[in-house]
Amino acid sequence: MFRHTRLPGESAEYLAAREELRLAEIELMRQGEEVAVRRRALPPGPPVDDYVFLEGPADLDAGDEPVREVRLSELFTAPERPLLMYQFMYGKADTDPCPMCTMWIDGFSNIGHHVTRNADFVIAAAADPPVLRQHARSRGWHRLRLLSCGGSTFKYDTGSEDKDGAQDSTVSVFTRDADGTLRHFYSVHPRMSDDIGERGIDLLAPVWNLLDLLPQGRGGWYPSVAY
After folding, report:
1. Cα 199 versus chain centre, distance
2. Cβ within 8 Å of residue 178, ≥6 positions away
3. Global pTM?
4. For residue 198, what pLDDT is reported?
5. Could you give the angle at the alpha carbon of 98 between the alpha carbons of 145 and 172, nearest 5°?
6. By CB count within 10 A, which of 18, 110, 169, 175 is most buried?
7. Helix axis angle, 99-115 relative to 129-139, nearest 10°?
């Protein structure tokens, strides 16, 4: 038995159950590693267009002008370096920022500089640059690169928007071949099946995983933009 604690009051029943749980947690971890290996082994994805995004000044406090066009190909900063993109559920039919997306991006704001040691990392939304940037200022997202893509078919093509302009949160990874070909490598959405509507990207937010450690679990709790 591998014990995590040395508390004298732990009953034999508790210790036995905790040991079973430990073994189940190890199995879950190894299954997650197997899934990650399969993800990395995906064959080359389809080529994608060199979509155009809009971007304001790097400094959020510098205002919202000038706005410049930047292409998908220009988001790659080095050869063989992948691009990781979080597609924010904000804009068009979704006139209010998604609370759950906001919670995720709150976390990205503080860990993004770690991610960018390994990949380029951006946040994209259909919302116009001033609207997106104002929300970002209210959250303190000063360390993230924010892009607007509401003027192109990018979000629709990558499954993050429907024909009516309703948005979805999506995590996408893109690659660039040596000859410059842009490819879609991987995307994942919260909805994974008819009976799984919001669990597909839980691992992006430690909040859910911390709540799952509690006796009551996550329950029906849902994040808000403001409490």
Report:
1. 12
2. 79
3. 0.93
4. 84
5. 50
6. 169
7. 80
Strand arrangement of the beta sheet that strand 83-88 belongs to: 68-71, 52-55, 146-148, 120-125, 83-88, 170-176, 182-188
Which secondary structure element, helix H or strand E, spans residue 136, and what is its range? helix 129-139
Q: Which residues of the chain have pLDDT under 50?
A: none
Helix (H, G, I), strand (E, B), or coil: what is residue 26?
A: helix
Q: Which amino acid is at 154?
A: F
Integer Cα distance of 61 and 143 in angstroms? 12
Half-sphere exposure of 219 (CA within 13 A, CB side): 5
Torsion of CA 123, 149, 103, 100, to 10 degrees: -140
SS (H, E, C) 188-205: ECCCCECCECCCCCHHHC
Q: How far apart are CA 59 and CA 205, in angstroms?
A: 25
pLDDT digits (tens, 9 = 90+) for 129-171: 999 999 999 999 999 999 999 999 999 999 999 999 999 999 9
Q: What is the pLDDT of residue 192?
A: 86
Nearest Cα neighbor of 163 from 171, 173, 153 is: 153
